[in-house]
């Protein structure tokens, strides 16, 4: 995020600086939303522990999760955005 801001500042383009600042503010807001309220802080940890327990029992669950999150969902989003 900071490197994108530095790169945008070096270009001198107003549009690139605007996009870089928007990206920075989006990331800061997301971090504050997830890590500041204690209930929100516990949710990702609980979900990670649950997925870890499932993955220990069955390796295919871990492989399916990685394939689904990094390949299937992005493919579907790209495919559906082109279909609209």
How would you characterize this protein structure?
Helices cover 92% and strands 0% of the residues. The protein is extended and about 55 Å long. Helix 1 runs antiparallel to helix 2 and helix 3 crosses helix 4 (59-83). The protein contains four helices and no strands. The longest helix has 25 residues, at 59-83. It is mainly alpha-helical. The chain has two domains: 1-36; 38-84, no CATH class.
The major pleated sheet works out as: none
Quaternary organisation of the protein chains = single chain
Helix/strand/pairing category = mainly alpha
Helix content: over 70%
Total domain units: 2
Quick recap of the structure?
The chain contains 4 helices and no strands. It has helices at 2-11, 14-35, 38-57, 59-83.
Task: Detail the topology: elements first, then pairings.
Blueprint (H helix, E strand, L loop, with lengths): L1 H10 L2 H22 L2 H20 L1 H25 L1
């Amino acid at each position: 995020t900071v490197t994108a801001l530095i790169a945008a500042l070096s270009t001198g383009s107003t549009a690139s600086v605007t996009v870089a600042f928007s990206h920075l503010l989006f990331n800061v807001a997301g971090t504050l939303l997830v890590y500041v309220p204690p209930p929100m802080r516990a949710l990702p940890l609980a979900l990670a522990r649950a997925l870890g327990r499932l993955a220990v029992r069955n390796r295919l669950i871990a492989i399916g999760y990685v394939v689904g999150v990094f390949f299937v969902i992005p493919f579907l989003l790209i495919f559906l955005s082109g279909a609209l």
